[in-house]
From TrEMBL:
<dbReference type="InterPro" id="IPR050250">
    <property type="entry name" value="Macrolide_Exporter_MacB"/>
</dbReference>
<feature type="domain" description="ABC3 transporter permease C-terminal">
    <location>
        <begin position="284"/>
        <end position="398"/>
    </location>
</feature>
<feature type="domain" description="MacB-like periplasmic core">
    <location>
        <begin position="20"/>
        <end position="230"/>
    </location>
</feature>
<keyword id="KW-0812">Transmembrane</keyword>
<dbReference type="InterPro" id="IPR003838">
    <property type="entry name" value="ABC3_permease_C"/>
</dbReference>
<keyword id="KW-1003">Cell membrane</keyword>
<dbReference type="Pfam" id="PF12704">
    <property type="entry name" value="MacB_PCD"/>
</dbReference>
<dbReference type="GO" id="GO:0005886">
    <property type="term" value="C:plasma membrane"/>
</dbReference>
<keyword id="KW-0472">Membrane</keyword>
<keyword id="KW-0067">ATP-binding</keyword>
<comment type="similarity">
    <text>Belongs to the ABC-4 integral membrane protein family.</text>
</comment>
<dbReference type="InterPro" id="IPR025857">
    <property type="entry name" value="MacB_PCD"/>
</dbReference>
<keyword id="KW-0378">Hydrolase</keyword>
<dbReference type="GO" id="GO:0022857">
    <property type="term" value="F:transmembrane transporter activity"/>
</dbReference>
<feature type="transmembrane region" description="Helical">
    <location>
        <begin position="333"/>
        <end position="355"/>
    </location>
</feature>
<feature type="transmembrane region" description="Helical">
    <location>
        <begin position="283"/>
        <end position="306"/>
    </location>
</feature>
<dbReference type="GO" id="GO:0005524">
    <property type="term" value="F:ATP binding"/>
</dbReference>
């Protein structure tokens, strides 16, 4: 009789103990998979929403305050445009987008307008390409996607939400909603600006901010028309909130010592606190899995050893080694752990698909990688919980077992 046949025979003859152990493991894995599944998609949803709020790190001239930034970015001080190249080539982990701006008050057709120069992300990416490097390092700590090369967000209208633009030619402009409406302009129209003609690439949706009255043009075009030179008023940075909290601001200050680096604290703290709360919940349910599943398996294994003392003694009297007995119990534990892990993953994934929209207001889909993780954890927990009972069974004296009958 082989080890496999012995295990299957016991599982068939003692289904009650099997079902109890399997349920304990399955329910623990179900809870772990469900909360982790919802956590993953909730973190992505939160990161995506906060990504749309715009820059969460601002690089300003030394004498400029955050209040000046919110006052339509209008201040007289500037910083060299070369800081953009330094920042792009530094390869700082967590920097996801860089958007330098130069704001110049001007007059078009007798109306005061804020002419804002922006540098397309395409040109920033080329800076690193010339050096044979990458602009933005991918990293594991951030829950948001690297957003500057997202083809779904390349539309010019994305500027209103993302504060950055992928492509913009030097003879094109983008109009704020108020300016476009008051002048009857739409995409494809022509606009004369400071003696030069420009094509209206698009008009932005209404945002309720000063951006509604802006005219956006290429940074180098605005520098040339305003004769301001190669300078900018501000560099807006979209950084991963996890990395900002872990020292990205200090790295930026060291890289650009002649500037002031300011974080929009509420945006950073919101994402970090939510992400940490979700992660802590995952750890809590992992602890529950280890405690409940492990205790249940250990209890069932001890009881199984006590019930099968005569059978174990018979096996050893027939020549079974202590190693064989230990492997017999551990193999059964591993089989139960694998079955509990897989069934727990399936039920947890289904449960998460219902709990996600109901409690976290996010759509949730199964995460295949959790199948391997949950099965591995369940197997490890059941083997660890059964090890001591298995060793106890292997040390039984066959003669003493028969005396007790």
């Amino acid at each position: 009789m082989t080890m496999r046949s012995i295990i299957w025979k016991e599982l068939r003859e003692r289904p009650t103990a099997l079902i109890a152990s399997l349920l304990a493991i399955m329910l623990s894995v179900t809870a772990l998979v469900a909360i982790r599944n919802v956590t993953i998609f909730s973190e992505k949803e939160v990161a995506g929403k906060l990504d749309k709020l715009g820059a969460n790190v601002l690089i300003l001239p030394k004498g400029v305050t955050l209040q000046d930034y919110y006052s339509a970015d209008m201040h007289a001080e500037t910083i060299p445009e070369e800081h953009v190249a330094e920042l792009a080539l530094a390869g700082l982990t967590g920097v996801e987008a860089i958007s330098p701006k130069l704001c110049v008050p001007t007059e078009i057709d007798g109306k005061n307008v804020i002419l804002t120069g922006i540098l397309p992300q395409e040109e920033i990416q080329k800076m690193a390409a010339w050096q044979g490097g990458m602009i933005f390092k991918k990293h594991e700590g951030c829950k948001a996607k690297i957003n500057v090369i997202d083809e779904n967000q390349d539309a010019p209208e994305a500027l209103a939400e993302r504060r950055a633009l992928q492509n913009l030619n030097e003879d094109e402009v983008i109009l704020g909603s108020d300016y476009a409406a008051s002048n009857g302009l739409a995409a494809g129209d022509s606009l004369e600006l400071l003696g030069e003609k420009f094509k209206v690439l698009t008009t932005l949706p209404e945002t309720g901010t000063v951006d509604d009255s802006r005219v956006f043009a290429h940074l180098h075009t605005v520098q040339r028309l305003s004769k301001s030179g190669e300078v900018v008023n501000i560099i807006e940075v979209m950084g991963c909130c996890e990395d900002i909290a872990n020292g990205l601001v200090g790295d930026l200050q060291s890289l650009l010592p002649g500037t002031k680096v300011v974080t929009i604290a509420n945006v950073v703290e919101t994402q970090v606190s939510i992400n940490r709360m979700m992660t802590n919940l995952s750890y809590l349910f992992l602890a529950i899995l280890i405690a409940v599943g492990g205790a249940s398996m250990a209890s069932a294994s001890f009881a199984n050893v006590m019930e099968r003392r005569r059978e174990i003694g018979t096996l050893m009297a027939l020549g079974a080694t202590p190693r064989f007995v230990t492997q017999l119990f551990l193999a059964k534990a591993a089989l139960l752990g694998l079955a509990g892990g897989i069934t727990g993953y399936i039920t947890g994934s289904v449960l998460a698909m219902f709990l996600g929209p109901a409690f976290a207001d996010v759509s949730v889909l199964p995460v295949p990688s959790l199948a391997f993780i949950s099965a591995a954890i369940a197997v490890l927990v059941t083997i660890a919980a059964s090890y001591i009972p298995a060793r106890q069974a292997a040390k039984l004296d066959p003669c003493m077992c028969f005396k007790e009958v």
